[in-house]
């Protein structure tokens, strides 16, 4: 979770997140919750298997690692 407080160019930040959703996130998506950037995924527990869960976790970890350098460009840590 990264706070979005004090970002000068919010529109550019939000565009970067949307582009990352399309390019880097296989499972889930980046979103905003209050003033925080979050990465979320929705899985059906009834039919969930371990491989699907691992793929989701790996995808979100990759997406988070990929977006961090971009977030630093906006002064976020």
Brief descriptors of the model:
2 helices; 77 residues
Molecular structure report:
- There is one protein chain.
- Helix content is 49%, strand content 16%.
- By secondary structure, it is of the alpha+beta class.
- The protein has one domain (2-73).
- Strands 1-3-2 form a 3-stranded antiparallel sheet.
- Helix 1 runs antiparallel to helix 2 (50-73).
- The model has no long low-confidence stretch (mean pLDDT 85).
Which SSEs are present, and which pair or pack?
Blueprint: E1 2-3, H1 10-23, E2 29-33, E3 36-40, H2 50-73
How big a fraction of the residues is strand? 15-25%
Number of domains: 1
How many helices in DSSP terms? 2
SSE arrangement, N to C? EHEEH
Helicity level? 40-55%
The gross shape turns out to be: elongated
Task: Trace the largest sheet across and list its strands.
Answer: 1-3-2
Taking all Cα atoms into account, the compactness measure Rg is 13 Å
Assign the structural class, choosing from mainly alpha, mainly beta, alpha/beta, alpha+beta, or little secondary structure: alpha+beta
How far apart the termini lie comes to 10 Å
Please describe the biggest sheet, giving its number of strands, its sense, and whether it closes into a barrel: 3 strands, antiparallel
Rounded mean pLDDT is 85
Instruction: Report the count of strand segments.
Output: 3
Q: Please mark out the parts with pLDDT under 50 across 5 or more consecutive residues, or reply none.
A: none
């Amino acid at each position: 979770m990264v706070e979005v407080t004090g970002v000068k160019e919010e529109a550019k930040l939000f565009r970067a997140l949307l582009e990352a959703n399309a390019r880097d996130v296989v499972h889930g998506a980046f979103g905003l919750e209050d003033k925080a950037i979050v990465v979320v995924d929705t899985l059906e527990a009834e039919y969930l298997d371990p491989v699907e869960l691992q793929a989701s976790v790996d995808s979100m970890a990759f997406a988070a690692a990929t977006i961090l350098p971009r977030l630093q460009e906006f002064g976020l840590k």
